[in-house]
Amino acid sequence: MSVLILEQTLNGLQFGLMLFLLAAGLTLVFGIMDLINLAHGSLYMIGAYLVAAVVGATGSFALAVLAAVLGTAAIGVLLEVTLLRRLYARDHLSQVLATFALLLICNEVVRLIFGSQPVMLSPPAALSGPVQLLPGFYYPAFRLAVIGAGLAVALLLYVLVGRTRAGMWVRAGASNREMAAAMGVDVKMLFTAVFGVGAALCALAGAMLGPLLAVQVGMGESILILAFVVIVIGGIGSIRGALVGALLVGMVDTVGRAFLPMFLRSFLSPAVASGVGPALASIAIYLLMAAILFWRPQGLFPARA
Amino acid sequence: MSRAHWTLTAVVLALLAFPVAAKHWDELFYVSFASRVLIYALAASSLNLILGYGGMVSFGHAAFLGTGAYTVAILMAEGVESAWVSWPLAVALSALLALVIGAISLRTRGVYFIMITLAFAQMTYYLFISMRTYGGEDGLNLARRSRFGFGLELAGDLTFYYVVLAVVALGLYLMWRLLQARFGQVVQAIRENETRMEAIGFPTYRYKLTCFAIAGGAAGLAGALLANQNGFVSPNLLQWTQSGTLMVIVILGGVGYLWGGPLGALVFLLLEEVLSGYTIHWQLGLGVALLAIVLFARQGIAGLLAGAVGGKRSTGA
Predict the structure, then answer these.
(1) In 10 A of CB B169, how many CB atoms?
(2) Are strands B140-141 and A137-140 parallel, antiparallel or unpaired?
(3) Does the pLDDT of residue A96 top 50, yes or no?
């Protein structure tokens, strides 16, 4: 039992950190540019497909991750410069429509190139086995690497946003865009850069989650909603909020899925418990979000004071 | 008669004559397609009521559509086949759900309102997935279309079309009357300046909540019709992309235009139908078309036509 709890906690941590990679870019784009980007999940999908393609061509996972991160960042910058830039001044409705259209286009282009079948992506051979963490407790090496990478990126982002001059501009932009521009921050360049970094983080998450989930068209849609839940819980525009929100959602989702059916079985019939359990676990994060918004309408760490 | 009256008369006559023409040329498929357009016109108009006129950007409208559809399907599975029972109940339950969701969501504003309505719709989605007795993830087949009485048999696509036309026309007419009435004027004024309306003494929260519940009920009615049309309901009806699609239809047609919902439904479903006939990658064409509309036709199709048909947009939003 304690092994199971330990394992599920690590799984929750791992999923939460990957959600953070997605949510970090989303919360900055949302917070600074006030842009609702429904196509953010598509960048995650594109990243995962790029990894699969490069692994297929070269056999090297590390090279594939590098190529996917750079490639997706380039695509993100290109999108920002050609299209999204025109949407900043528009209302949220137009943004929803435009990025929804973009999501459809991305899905179909990927389907045109790679086909409708899910693409196989396996973890690199060196990390495919389990590792013994405690006596008698084994954990997949790849998941451990994912946790490591997630923590490293979280730390890097924290330093970048909290301790550097560029990070100061980002925070200034998130808290008051007009004032930041008036004080001489090149907001236009900043937007493009932030969008590129957000896209790169998406690709990284795609590379890490691709071998664990499935690489297929539409993989971005379900996780996009989770990323939105994360940033709303954390407070839009706040990196710290995104981290706390992501870990909360990752934990609640994973632990709920693992233990709720078991818990329900103690007082419901097994058939009912196995039906209600997963649904209740899926609902749990939305309940969490509704509850947090009810008591703290601006999220846990609002960026705008 | 004004130009708007002429347009309306022409549209109604065309809708009445359409199945006769389709039957004449032996293209009955289009009758079923037209029913679908009408149903989506009602669903989109109900969203337009809160989105365009009330200024409430709800990203969870599929929840109400799905609840209406499931009400009919579940009642039928339990042996209740009369439309006179299940359709009003679909409206009532969807309106009740909207009342509960609205009561909590309307305490938040802006982006947070968008997200919390989305969250509640997702909860509803997973709720229906968890109902194993009623198909769970696989959905539920309807044994037949609802019984209507008066010697009308809805199984035939022609009869069903006229019933749908009557119900949708009634729904749209009531919505139009509502917007003309004091209630509708107050709701639009709240969209323009809520602080001022509150200061004058209007209970703005209650007005918005009522409007939200009415829109939910109308969407439920559309859902009841949709369940009959498809003969099948599944949790897919409540997926967030469905809410997104409804929103896209409204924006496409024209937010805050009376004709926005019907026009958007017509153009969206036509695009889908025509493009999917040419290629399996029709979503690419749809995406490009939507993008072009956002960038070049900012007021939607109704906005483009406004001069031609004399359609009046309620300003703002």
Answers:
(1) 15
(2) unpaired
(3) yes
Residue of B nearest to A220 (CA): B241
What are the backbone angles phi and psi of residue B257, rounded to the nearest 5°? -105, 140
**Closest chain B residue to A93 measured between Cα atoms?**
B251
Tokens representing A45? 């999908």
Do A289 and B244 count as a contact with CB atoms less than 8 A apart?
no
Length of chain B: 317
List A130's β-bridge partners, or say none. A140
**Is the dihedral angle over the CA atoms A121, A122, A125, A130 positive or is it negative?**
positive
Contact by Cβ (8 Å): A201, A25: yes
Q: Where are the alpha helices (DSSP H) in A84-140?
A: 92-114
So what's the ipTM on this one?
0.79
A282 part of contact set with chain B, CB < 8 Å: yes
Q: How far apart are CA A104 and CA B281, in angstroms?
A: 10
Report yes or no: B103 at the A interface, CB cutoff 8 Å: no
Q: Which of A33, A81, A26, A73 is nearest to A226 (CA)?
A: A26
The helix (run of H) or strand (run of E) holding residue A78 is helix A61-82
Structure confidence by residue, pLDDT tens digits, A252-298 = 988 888 888 778 777 777 777 776 777 787 888 888 888 888 788 78
Q: Give pTM, 2 decimals.
A: 0.84
Q: Phi and psi for B144 in degrees, rounded to 5? A: -160, 175
Q: What CA–CA distance (Å, rounded) separates A5 from A259?
A: 9
Cα–Cα distance for residue pair B156/B146, rounded to 1 Å: 12
**How long is chain A?**
305
- Using a CB-CB cut-off of 8 Å, the residues of chain B touching A103 are 287
| Burial of A305 (C-beta count, 10 Å sphere; 0-12/13-18/19+) | exposed
Give the number of A-B residue pairs with CB atoms closer than 8 Å: 131
Sign of the dihedral through C-alpha B77, B101, A237, A34: positive
3-state helix/strand/coil string of B129-193? HHCHHHCHHHCEECCCCCECECCECCCCHHHHHHHHHHHHHHHHHHHHHHHHCHHHHHHHHHHHC
Structure tokens at A96: 């929803």
* Cα B238-A290-A206 angle, rounded to 5 deg: 65
